[in-house]
Amino acid sequence: MPVISTEGLSKRYRLGELNRRYLFRDINSFFAKCLGRPDPNAMVDARETHAREGVIWALRNVDMEIEDGDVVGVIGRNGSGKSTLLKILSRITTPTEGSARIKGRVASLLEVGTGFHPELTGRDNVYLNGSILGMPKEMIKAKFDEIVAFSGVEEFIDTPVKRYSSGMSVRLAFAVAAHLEPDILIIDEVLAVGDAEFQKKCLGTIGESAKGGRTILFVSHNAGAVESLCTKGIVLNNGKVAYAGTQTDAIQFYSDSMEKHNEPLSERRDRSGSGEVYVVNIKLKAKDGTEVHAHIPGESLFVEMEYENPHDLKFPNILLGLVIKSHLDVPLFTISNYVTGDSLGRDLRKSGKFLCEIQALALMPGLYHLDYYINSQPKGAKLLDGVNGAVHFTVLESNYYGSGKMPGQGVLLAPSKWRVA
To answer: Residue 42 and residue 22: Cα distance in Å, rounded?
Structure first.
C-alpha cells in the first residue's frame, strides 16, 4: 500500500519581482484549493506559460507511488526539481497543479537550521525544533541527552545558535530529526555541510532507519550512498520523472544520460549564476594543443574555457574552480586559482579564454566529468556562472606503473616505491 503518491504534481515559479497582481491571484488560488474549488487562474496560467517569458515549471506532471518501507534515492542534475518535490511532500510549499498524498508522520531535513531561531541557545532550539516536527515535550526531554551526544555540540549547547557554524547547525538539526522516529523521513542534500566523520554517522543512522522499516526519501549527489542505502531510485530531469526503478538501474540511467548530454554549453538551461561573466565553450586538450575526449593517466590535462564578459567588467579577482567527478557524480577533487594564488579578474577582456593545466592527472580508467564555477571574488563571493557536467571525458587503460599492472580498486593513482628496511 503506497504511503506517498502523487498525481499530475506540478509546480510553477515566476522569475523576477513579485507584484500586487500576481499576489492577489496566488491568494485566490490558495483559497480555492482550501475550499475544494477549481483554480480560477488555471486557464490564464496555461496561456501565460506559452505566451510570456519569466515562468518556469520546476515540476511537471509527476506521477509516482512509494510503498511503506521503501528507501528511495532521488537523483538528477541541479535544477531538475528534486528539492521542489521534497518541499511539496514536506508541506513547505503547495503544488500549482496536481496532488500529493502522504500517510504517516513525516520528519524532513531540507535546509541547514530549518526551524532554528538564531537568538535561542542550542538547548532551546532542540525543544523548539522538536515541537515543530511533532515531538511531545516529554519525548524531547527523554531523548535530549541522546540528541546532543549524537550532534557532538555538547560544549556549545547553551550558546546562541547564531554563533554556530553551518556544520554545527546541521548536525544538531539532523540529530533532532533522526530521533523523532517518524514513519517517513525526507532528507535533502544537507549532509554535505557536515564533516566526513559526521556524514558517516548520519549515513549509518539512515541505514538503521531503513532496516527498521521506515520509508525514506533521500536526495544526494553521492551516488555511492544512494546505491548502498536505497532500494529504489527516481531520476528527475527538467521537472519530470525520467526513470523510476531499482537504485542501481536509476544510477546507471542517470550516468548514461550525463554521458550522452551533447547540448552546447552556451545553450545549457541548468547553468547557475548572474551571467555577468559566463563560459560559452570548454575544450580538453593534450600537451600538443589537440582537442581530446580521452586522457592517459599521469599526463597533464589542459582545460580551455572560452568566456564572454559582455559589459567589460573588472574585478579585483575572480575565483574559477574546477571539480572533477566520477561517472556516479561523486566529487573527487577541486582545483582553483584561489588556492594557487593566480589572479584572473584584472586581466578580463570582453571575451577571451581561461586556461588551466592539471598537471600529471592520474585517475583510474573510467568515465569522468568536470563541473566549473566562477565567483566574483574568494570572500563574500557572488556566483557569476556555473555548470555541472560541463564536459565529459574518458580515462584510458595505461601502463602507469611500468609493470603492466593496475590496482584493483580506487579512483586515484599515486606514484610509489617499495623497499624493505
So the answer is: 13
Nearest to 172 by CA among 188, 148, 191: 148
> What domains, with CATH codes, occur in the chain?
2-10+60-259 (3.40.50.300), 17-53 (no CATH), 271-395 (2.70.50.60)
**158/94 Cα distance (integer angstroms):** 36
Query: Residue 266 is placed in which grid cell?
Result: 552556451
Instruction: Quickly count: other Cβ atoms within 10 Å of residue 7's Cβ.
Output: 14
The predicted-structure confidence for 333-371, as pLDDT tens digits, reads as follows: 999 998 998 988 777 899 999 999 999 999 998 888 899
**Whole-number mean pLDDT of the chain?**
82
251-288: buried (b, 16+ CB within 10 Å) or exposed (e) per residue? bbbbbebbeeeeeebeebebbebeebbbbeebebbeee
The Cα 185–Cα 69 span in angstroms is: 11
pLDDT tens digits along 4-38: 999 999 998 876 555 555 555 666 666 666 666 66
Categorize the per-residue pLDDT at 52 as very low, low, confident or very high, splitting at 50, 70 and 90: very low
